[in-house]
Amino acid sequence: MDINVPLILFLLVAGTGVVTLVDRVLWAGKRKAAIAKVQESFSELTEEQKEEDKKYQAAIATASAEPSYVEISKSFFPLLALVFVVRSFIIEPFQIPSESMVPTLEVGDFIAVNKFTYGIRLPILRTKVLDINDPERGDVMVFFPPNEKRYFIKRVIGLPGDKVRIQNNRLFINGVEVPREHVSDVIPTNPGEFCFSVGGVYKVMEETIDGKKHIMRNCSTPSSAGLAYSSVVPEGHYFMMGDNRDNSGDSRKFGMVPEERIVGKAFVIWMHWDKFLSIPSFSRVGSI
């Protein structure tokens, strides 16, 4: 079950905010009135005597005491509100859970996602209220696929109106092959990988899309030579693929991604943490 962090954070902000507001306009006034009543009851005491009178001090403490839920709400509301605003409109952190973007992103990478570069959206509802930039080919984007509630991260391959064709493990956009250069061959070692199961070899390539270079890999097998795909990206949609092409579900499987399901643009790796009991590493820190 996926945890809806934005919704939980919103409910926490709303709850602590309501308690803080009610305390300010109602309960705080009642406490002040109670304190004034205590002071009136002990009006015969001088200020020096009040400081030493245990009954007076106890009465003042009781009258001014805030319920624990009020104290907690007032303490946490500013911090929760700040985190909510930053995550909703500026930057949101994510951890990479799968190998779909290997070698660009590895399992355990912690990334930061720019939430405003593609436009300002309302939290929870994801309704865009301000246009800023459109996604570009080669961007690494976080989104919700159609009919999915989980976050996905893939690379933008096709823009609205583009004709995307994949033939013999080669990518064509609007009839032009995307340039790539061979980097190395890698023999798969994980039995759970498709390439291992079919006895293939990973071809590691440097691919260039609209001047942006990135490393990707394909599984080269005799059976993949004749496979083909072709489609035109509808208006308001985007064609997405992982850099680990044959171990990544992409728009050929889950369909084109509607503009309203975009979350943001991944732009930096800020930490790597393989397992809970392992030591976090900063060796992979850098831009995406």
Which overall shape is indicated by the principal axes computed on the Cα atoms? elongated
Query: What's the number of extended β-strand segments?
Result: 17
Beginning-to-end CA distance, first to last residue: 29 Å
Low-confidence runs (pLDDT<50, min 5 residues)?
none
Cα-atom Rg, whole angstroms? 28 Å
Number of domains: 2
If helices are DSSP runs of H or I spanning 4 or more residues, what is the number of helices?
A: 6
Assess the beta-strand content as a share of residues: 25-35%
Q: Percent of residues in helical segments?
A: 25-40%
Order of helices and strands: HHHHEEEEEEEEEEHEEEEHEEE
CATH architecture of the largest domain: Ribbon
CATH superfamily of the largest domain: Umud Fragment, subunit A
Q: For the record, what CATH class of the largest domain applies?
A: Mainly Beta
Counting helices, strands and paired strands, the structural category is alpha+beta
Largest sheet features: 8 strands, antiparallel
Mean pLDDT: 93
EC number: 3.4.21.89
Subcellular location: Membrane
Catalytic activity: Cleavage of hydrophobic, N-terminal signal or leader sequences from secreted and periplasmic proteins
Protein name: Signal peptidase I
Secondary-structure blueprint:
Blueprint: H1 5-41, H2 47-52, H3 54-64, H4 68-89, E1 91-95, E2 109-114, E3 120-121, E4 128-130, E5 140-143, E6 152-158, E7 163-167, E8 170-173, E9 176-177, E10 180-186, H5 194-197, E11 201-209, E12 212-220, E13 228-232, E14 237-241, H6 251-254, E15 257-258, E16 262-272, E17 286-287
Helix pairs in contact: 1-3, 1-4
